[in-house]
């Protein structure tokens, strides 16, 4: 096939793909208004191009296509498509080639440089990505994206000290996205200090996190933990009260600490009032179970059983049913007791397979509260599931 016919075919494939993709993107954007990628991407159009032609053919097309201001978005889209497919060598080569062109240096250098940093990031070449992004910080239009890219590098390297320092020195104090991250870095450092039993340092870091982002529920949980570990139970309860206003979805995470504080202060009735308060605003398996436990301690097993039965009518819950069975075992006759134990074992198995946390951004689910989602890497997106 001669070169003219090849170009014609490619042009038709890209054109057709773009038209179809454009219409589909319009339909998509009506459902998801405001979401768009940077970098002149036409992913669906390009998928038609790559389905129709193999990589060497596209390479040949890319090599012969003149680099102009108009063709640059197509170059960027092809390179980004390669990156998404994991072909980092090709995407890097295209971005490097673009940066060698004077027309790009004049008008699109920052955008192409940023894309090159993303190639390095995807390849795990963090030193190169850091160098490129640091150079890009001086461009006001790319400052925030570059800083977020740099922070992502330090996050991946778990270098929380540098991440905090860069976020605080390079980010604007008014930038909530950066502040939320800086607070999380302080929390990471505070947790490390707690693991080393350096409670004063952990307290200072948790307070620093709250001074940077007063909505950081993780910092309040940490500060309360420090107060509990230093026997300041009333102070811990005062800190835990803030979580409702910071991020109510983490209130259930505060209940173990609140229970310990009330027990140490010999105020079990107070803990029951806390549970009632939380239940009224946010019923959950955990509150149901803890309420039954407290009623059993303060009143009797029978009262706790009746409480659970009444609540389970309205809020059926496997975890609640399991506690009800546990309460019934000691008072059951020998034969039913045997069967109740079998049912309890089956329910424990089922419950073990149910996740207790889920990322509200990507759906990642598990049994651990990750403050940074291991899948989508968003902070404070993994939330406790209220019902199991
Ligand atoms: Zn996620």
Summarize the structure.
By secondary structure, this protein is an all-alpha fold. The chain is 70% helix and 2% strand. It folds into four domains: 1-157, Serine Threonine Protein Phosphatase 5, Tetratricopeptide repeat (Alpha Horseshoe); 160-264, Serine Threonine Protein Phosphatase 5, Tetratricopeptide repeat (Alpha Horseshoe); 283-353, no CATH class; 355-388.
Give the topology.
Blueprint lengths: L2 H29 L11 H10 L2 H10 L7 H13 L3 H12 L2 H6 L1 H15 L2 H11 L6 H14 L3 H11 L5 H20 L3 H14 L4 H13 L3 H8 L2 H4 L8 H10 L3 H14 L3 H14 L2 H14 L3 H11 L5 H20 L3 E3 L5 E2 L15 E3 L4
Helix pairs in contact: 1-2, 4-5, 5-7, 7-8, 7-9, 8-9, 9-10, 10-11, 11-12, 11-13, 12-13, 13-14, 14-16, 16-17, 17-18, 18-19, 18-20, 19-20, 20-21
The site of zinc ion (ZN) has 9 residues, from loops.
Describe the structure.
This protein is mainly alpha-helical and 388 residues long. The chain has four domains: 1-157, Tetratricopeptide repeat domain (Serine Threonine Protein Phosphatase 5, Tetratricopeptide repeat), CATH 1.25.40; 160-264, Serine Threonine Protein Phosphatase 5, Tetratricopeptide repeat (Alpha Horseshoe), CATH 1.25.40.10; 283-353, no CATH class; 355-388. It is built from 21 helices and three strands. The chain has helices at residues 3-31, 43-52, 55-64, 72-84, 88-99, 102-107, 109-123, 126-136, 143-156, 160-170, 176-195, 199-212, 217-229, 233-240, 243-246, 255-264, 268-281, 285-298, 301-314, 318-328, 334-353, and strands spanning 357-359, 365-366, 382-384. The chain has a three-stranded antiparallel sheet, with no helix packed on it. β1 and β2 (365-366) form a beta hairpin. α10 (160-170) packs antiparallel against α11, α16 (255-264) runs antiparallel to α17 (268-281) and α17 packs antiparallel against α18. It is elongated, with a radius of gyration of 28 Å. The termini are far apart. The model is unreliable at 16-41 (pLDDT under 50). The structure holds zinc ion. Residues 359, 361-362, 364, 373, 375-376, 378, 381 line the site of zinc ion.
């Amino acid at each position: 096939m001669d070169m003219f016919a090849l170009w014609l075919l490619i042009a038709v494939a890209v054109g057709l793909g773009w038209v179809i993709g454009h219409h589909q993107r319009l339909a998509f954007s009506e459902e998801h208004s405001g979401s768009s990628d940077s970098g002149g991407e036409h992913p669906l159009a390009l998928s038609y191009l790559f389905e129709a032609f193999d990589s060497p053919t596209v390479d040949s097309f890319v090599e012969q296509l003149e680099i102009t201001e108009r063709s640059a978005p197509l170059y960027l889209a092809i390179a980004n498509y390669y990156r998404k497919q994991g072909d980092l060598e090709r995407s890097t080569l295209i971005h490097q080639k673009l940066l060698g062109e004077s027309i790009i240096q004049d008008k699109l250098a920052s955008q192409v440089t940023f894309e090159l940093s993303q190639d390095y990031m995807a390849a795990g070449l963090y030193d190169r990505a850091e160098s490129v992004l640091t150079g890009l910080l001086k461009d006001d239009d790319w400052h925030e994206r570059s800083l977020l890219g740099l922070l992502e590098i330090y996050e991946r390297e778990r270098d929380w000290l540098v991440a905090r320092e860069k976020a605080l020195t390079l980010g604007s104090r008014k930038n909530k996205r950066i502040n939320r991250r800086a607070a999380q870095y302080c929390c990471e450092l505070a947790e490390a200090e707690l693991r080393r039993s350096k409670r004063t340092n952990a307290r200072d870091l948790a307070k620093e996190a709250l001074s940077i982002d007063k909505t950081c529920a993780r910092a309040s949980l940490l500060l309360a933990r420090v107060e509990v570990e230093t026997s300041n139970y009333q102070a811990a309860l005062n800190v835990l009260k803030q979580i409702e206003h910071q991020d109510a979805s983490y209130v259930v995470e505060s209940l173990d600490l609140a229970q310990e504080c009330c027990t140490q202060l010999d105020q079990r009735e107070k803990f029951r009032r806390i549970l009632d308060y939380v239940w009224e605003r946010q019923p959950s398996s955990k509150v149901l179970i803890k309420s039954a436990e407290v009623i059993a301690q303060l009143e009797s097993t029978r009262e706790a059983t009746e409480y659970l039965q009444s609540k389970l009518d309205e809020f059926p819950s496997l975890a609640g049913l399991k506690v009800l069975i546990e309460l019934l075992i000691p008072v059951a006759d020998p034969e039913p007791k045997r069967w109740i134990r079998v049912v309890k074992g089956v329910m424990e198995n089922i419950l073990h397979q149910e996740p207790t946390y889920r990322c509200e951004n990507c759906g990642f689910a598990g049994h651990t509260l990750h403050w940074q989602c291991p899948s989508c890497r968003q902070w404070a997106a993994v939330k406790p599931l209220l019902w199991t």
